[in-house]
Amino acid sequence: MNKQLPANQQILPILYALQGVEEDPGLGWCITVLYGLYSALMMVRRKCWSMFCVLHTDEKSLDERVS
């Protein structure tokens, strides 16, 4: 369904590159925090989407039972 690479595979090369940048450790920390927020957002979105799909099919089956 989703043909993109998993998000952790997209960000790993960036994190490895940032490990070499020790003059500015704040940048690596910032990227890590942003990635954490992004991961949480994707997880919540997936859960909400699957719940919505389940609710939507429940509504359809309720409508079929009523008619």
Folded structure, characterized:
The protein has helices spanning 7-19, 25-66. It has 67 residues and is mostly helical. The longest helix has 42 residues, at 25-66. The radius of gyration is 20 Å and the shape is elongated. It starts with 6 loop residues before the first helix and ends with a helix. The mean pLDDT is 68.
**Rg estimate, integer Å:** 20 Å
Overall 3D form: elongated
E-strand count: 0
Order of helices and strands: HH
Percent of residues in β-strands: under 5%
Count of helices? 2
Please summarize the sheet with the most strands: none
End-to-end Cα distance, whole Å, is 34 Å
Structural class: mainly alpha
Assign a percent range to the helix content.
over 70%
Contiguous uncertain segments of 5+ residues: none
Keywords: Membrane, Transmembrane, Transmembrane helix
Transmembrane segments: 26-44
Provide a brief overview of the structure.
The chain has 67 residues and is mainly alpha-helical. Helix content is 82%, strand content 0%. Keywords: Membrane, Transmembrane, Transmembrane helix.
Helices and strands, with pairings:
Blueprint: H1 7-19, H2 25-66
Helix pairs in contact: 1-2
Main attributes?
single chain, 67 residues, mainly alpha, 2 helices, 82% helix
